[in-house]
Each structure stands twice: as structure tokens, then as C-alpha cells.
Amino acid sequence: MSDKNKITMSSPDLTDAERQAVQAVLETPNLSMGQYIREFEKAVCELTGCSHAIGVSSGTSALHLCIRAAGIGPGDLVITTPFSFISSTNVILFENAIPVFVDVDPHSGNIDPEMVQQAVRDLMIGNSRAETWRPPKLKYHTGQLKAILPVDVFGQPADMEPIVNAAHKNGLKVIEDSCEALGTKYKGKLAGTLGDYGCFAFYPNKQITTGEGGMIVTDDAKAAEFMQALRNQGRASGDTWLQHTHLGYNYRLDEMSAALGLVQLSRLEEMLQKREKVAAWYAQGLSSIPGIELPVVEPHTTRSSWFVYVVRFEPGINRQEVIKQLSEHNIPARPYFVPIHIQPYIMERFGYREEDFPVTMDLGHRGLALPFSSVMSKQQVEIVYQTLGEILRNLA
Ligand SMILES: *Cc1c(COP(=O)(O)O)cnc(C)c1O
Prior knowledge:
Blueprint: H1 16-26, H2 35-48, E1 52-56, H3 59-69, E2 77-80, H4 87-94, E3 98-101, H5 113-125, H6 130-133, E4 145-149, H7 160-169, E5 173-177, E6 185-186, E7 189-190, E8 197-201, E9 214-218, H8 221-231, H9 255-266, H10 268-286, E10 292-293, E11 301-303, E12 309-313, H11 319-328, E13 334-335, H12 344-350, H13 358-366, E14 367-370, H14 378-395
Parallel strand pairs: 2-3, 2-4, 4-5, 5-8
Antiparallel strand pairs: 1-9, 6-7, 6-11, 8-9, 10-12, 12-14, 13-14
């Protein structure tokens, strides 16, 4: 058994209801593509108001299917953010398309909407500034701009209105990566429902978990049918079992995971309220500690679903030393994110330098994710901020 008092980076929030739901699946002969995935998808449609939900094996496979549905292929350009978890860029590379990185807003860490608009204008016109948006090693390549892939980081929505407007005026698709933002609201509307396709992820550190899993939501019936086929080895709905209409994948979500997700989804509001409470404990405890900036909830975020709790150190504080001393007190903490444009294989392929995205680099250097989950106790939160406060006082 795990030690209940141990402070972990994140933790799933599971009850007897989840255990019984998984057990019930094990008593049926259908462990994949049965009633539970259909019920889970229906529940996600009811929550989001979207007409189609497609359960898949991970958030990454959800994003990949959207890239395919948007018709993105070799050499096409997709505007996205370098300040994200790696998979939002990897899915573009899976199809040999090219990520066009745009820097982020210094407060939220989400893609800067004005820079997105500028990049769309320049790339659609193909003017001399267009070259400045392309990766350094591909400056004179003439791929076509096809889509925008904004990411709702840390449980806050990207500023979607100007992004969707710029996209739709120019015939571009919007794939919203809401893998960190289930339950988040932008101007009263749920994250994931704001573009053409939205993606959620259910890894154990997310707002709800299925172990591994993901979900796509869309109102586009044709795209939904295509993605349903692709997740199941490219079988179209009329195909017989070994007939395959498209090049597809095994991106199915199994029944145990779907049953778990169904119960978790029914507890979403309860768990979001617990996350809000933990974030408020942190905010109160950390507010008197000099040298750190607390997360800011943007005015357009009418609800944050608090994926992580990331503080930023003022310049001059040695983050690595803080992490080391926290770990000596058995408190885990992580840099969050390591920017995508400086990942070794991305730098090698596209020739980026650190300074190409200065806001992303700055946030990447100064951000630290503290232990965070809906099951953290007030006492655990106190241990974290008191220890962090002491460490910072001794370093000063
Ligand atoms: C978690 C996450 C994903 C998807 O993750 P999986 O592990 O594949 O489920 C995608 N994008 C972002 C921003 C994420 O945080």
C-alpha cells in the first residue's frame, strides 16, 4: 500500500464507485468497443454540448486524429505554441507537417493571439515577413498554412476568439488542445468546444483519469465519422470486420477505461471544486513569501480547472537548488514546461535557437510546478509552502 501522507507531484482521485465500475466490466465478455465507451462518449457530449465525442487511447492519439481530419499532410504548416507538453507538436510531425511556433502571453503562458493573427496574415499573403515565421532551417520552403493548434495550458483557455476569427476568415481549421483543461471555461464556454475539434486527455495527472485515454469533441459529422474509422484500423462504419477503407490505427479506448472515465466524469464538479480549494490554500500560504510570482487567472477565464500549480521565481533565484532542497524534504517539484523549440530533436531538425521565443524561454526558466491534486490535504499544502518559504529565506 502507498503511504497516504507522502506528498506526490500529482495523484488520481479514486473512490469505491470507480473500483466497482471497473469490476463490473470484468464480469462481462466485452472488454473493448462495447456499451461503456458509448456511454462515456454520450456523457461527454452532454457535458460539452458537442454533437460528437470519440473516445480514444490517449490525448496524443486524439490530437493526431484531428490532424488527419483537418487534411494536414507533408509540408503543410500548422501554427502552434512552443510552450506546451511535447505531444501538441509531435502530432504535427507525425504527418511530416511543419509546426510554425508563435510566442506566448507572459501572464497565462498561452499562445499570443495578436502574434497568431500576424502570422496568419503574413503566411496567407506570403510576403517577406512570412519567412520570419518559418523554422530557420526551412525559410524558403513554400508549404501551405492549414490550421492553428492552440493549447489551453495549466487549466486556462487560450484567448480563442481572435484565433478562431483569424482561422475561419482564412479557411483554416482550429484544433484546440484542451488536454489540460477539462472543465475550464472561456467567457462562459467550455474549453475544447471553441475550435473545429477539441481534445481531452485522461492520463492519471489530468482533471479526470481513465489510466490512459483521451476524447475528441466536434460538431463536424463527416470528420467524426472519419476519426471513428481511423481509431479502429480505418474501418468505415459500413465495412465488414476485415475491410479497411482508410489507413488507420489502433487508438481504441478499452471498456475498463471507459467505465472508469464515466464515473470520474460524474465526479468532475466535485473534483474541480477540490482543486480550486487546494489552489486557494497555496495562494494564501505563498502570498507572503518574497521572490515568487503566483499564477494569475486571466479575465477571460471564467473558470480555471487548475491542472497544475506553477509558481515563477523572480530572476536570480537558483531554481535547481530549490528543487534539490525540496527533494531533501521529500517534496517533489518540476520545471514546467521545458520549451518545445529547445528539445534536442526539434533544434536539430528545424535549427531554432533559445532566443527565438523569448517569453517562452523566460517562463520555461522560471516556472516550477508544485505538488498538486484534488486529494491533497491542507496540511500537505502547508508543508510545501512552509518548506519552500524557508528554503528561499536561507538562499536570500
Ligand atoms: C497531457 C497532454 C496531452 C496528451 O497526453 P497523453 O499523455 O497522450 O494523454 C496533450 N497535450 C497537452 C498540453 C497535455 O498536457
